[in-house]
Amino acid sequence: MILLDSSVLIDLFRKKDKTKSYFFNLLSEENDFAISTVTQYEIGIGNKVSTSDFWNELNDRLTILSFDQSCSIEAIEIYATLKRKNKLIDLADLLIGATAKSHNIPLATLNKKHFQRIDGLVLI
């Protein structure tokens, strides 16, 4: 299973030729994908009525991982480490990274710059 960051989903949506999207490339390696409830929220608030069918169909095909207690504990530890290093990242990215780490799955993102600050997070 691979956890998808919103950047991967937005790339898929924006590409007219879906075969040129990062997500399409991931399909050659894996066919089991998930998003965090944080990613679901990010996509949902940016969703327009004209594109809701696309996002709803995609949501139905993905596993949705809830931000639960183990994710929260992981996020607290990540936050403390990043704050100590003076390298804090956007809260949503921190929560998505914590979800991937707590479920022990890699994260696919087009925003590696922020996520690579999280120790032990496997990025694709």
UniProtKB/TrEMBL annotation:
It comes from the Bacteria. Its cofactor is Mg(2+). Keywords: Hydrolase, Magnesium, Metal-binding, Nuclease, Toxin-antitoxin system. InterPro entries: PIN-like_dom_sf, PIN_dom, Type_II_TA_system_RNase. Belongs to the PINc/VapC protein family. Gene3D superfamilies: 5'-nuclease. This is PIN domain protein. Pfam families: PIN. Residues 2-120 form the PIN domain. GO terms for molecular function: hydrolase activity; metal ion binding; nuclease activity.
